[in-house]
Amino acid sequence: MARGLATGISNMVGLIISDIRNPYFAEVTRGVEDAAYAAGCDVMLCNSDLKAQRQMSYIDSLIEKRAKGIVMNSVSALSRREQSYILDCGMQIVLLNPHSQRSLFSTVCADNEQGGRIAAEYLLANGHRRLMHFTGPREHANLKLRAKGFIKRIQKLGIDAEVTTLSAERTSEGGYELARYLFSRPSRNWPTGIFTANDAMAFGVIRAAMDFGVSIPDDLSLVGFDDVELAGRVHPPLTTMSQPKYQIGATALQMLLRRVSSGVKEPEHITFGVELVERQSCKPIRVV
């Protein structure tokens, strides 16, 4: 770092994520780190804890440390003023968020809206008509697109279907709190299928189901999003939307270094496809 301060050149890149305790970010981080190691770079890991102010504080710190660039999962849309400030400082950023017309930065992410559509089609094809979506903060673009794809597909294909959305923190604890609220109500008010914004929330639903004596998938079916390693090991094994987490992280880091080296300023965007991984947390029901 001292050499970087003296020469103005650093081999350190910043990685700003929401929370490393989320298994999704652990796999993305490994992709970033391996790609950085191969390029002879070090990685400085920063957890924003879903706080926009903390996120900007880390950006300032990385600018001061003359980081080569930043890979970041932004917890909320950066304002034009914030984006202009970052660019004026000469900092390259690659976002792990979907492309927005208001964003001046490059992006690498999965097709979140497509994932929501596939989850809706799967539950509808299995006879589910009373559906619920557990999601996180409304300002988070990835989660917003998953919800959009899910709800719009149900409205288009499920003529006799209904869907309700509940929001909490996008963590296991957030999923647990929403499920506990649901299971404390009469079972006639329960959905037959739940789609969660990520696997962490789905794990919370499974824990609440165990506490309340609810059977998954006999009482309700559950679909997650991410396909983290634990998804195949919980009971029941979780049906979920899989995205290439390691590849997303590695690609974002490689894109960042390529842009720093070339000096290109025009943003570029890469979107990876997703696919359904069917396990034992869902079952078909007879449509009455």
SSE map:
Layout: H1 2-7, E1 12-17, H2 23-38, E2 42-47, H3 52-64, E3 70-72, H4 80-88, E4 93-95, E5 106-110, H5 112-125, E6 130-135, H6 141-157, E7 162-167, H7 172-183, E8 193-196, H8 199-212, E9 221-226, E10 239-242, H9 245-262, E11 269-272, E12 275-277
Parallel strand pairs: 1-2, 1-3, 3-4, 4-5, 5-11, 6-7, 6-8, 8-9, 9-10
Antiparallel strand pairs: 10-12
Provide a compact summary of the structure:
By secondary structure, this protein is α/β, with parallel strands linked by helices.
- Give start-end ranges of low-pLDDT stretches: none
Distance between the first and last residues' Cα:
67 Å
What's the overall geometry? elongated
Name of the level-1 CATH class of the largest domain = Alpha Beta
How much strand?
15-25%
Figure out the total of helices: 9
> Taking strands numbered 1, 2, ... along the chain, how are they ordered across the largest sheet?
2-1-3-4-5-11
Give me the CATH superfamily of the largest domain.
Answer: Response regulator
Topology pattern, helix = H, strand = E: HEHEHEHEEHEHEHEHEEHEE
CATH architecture type of the largest domain:
3-Layer(aba) Sandwich
CATH topology of the largest domain: Rossmann fold
Rg over alpha carbons: 20 Å
Helical percentage: 40-55%
Number of strands: 12
Structural class: alpha/beta
Mean pLDDT: 92
Number of domains: 2
Q: Main sheet, how many strands, which sense, barrel?
A: 6 strands, parallel
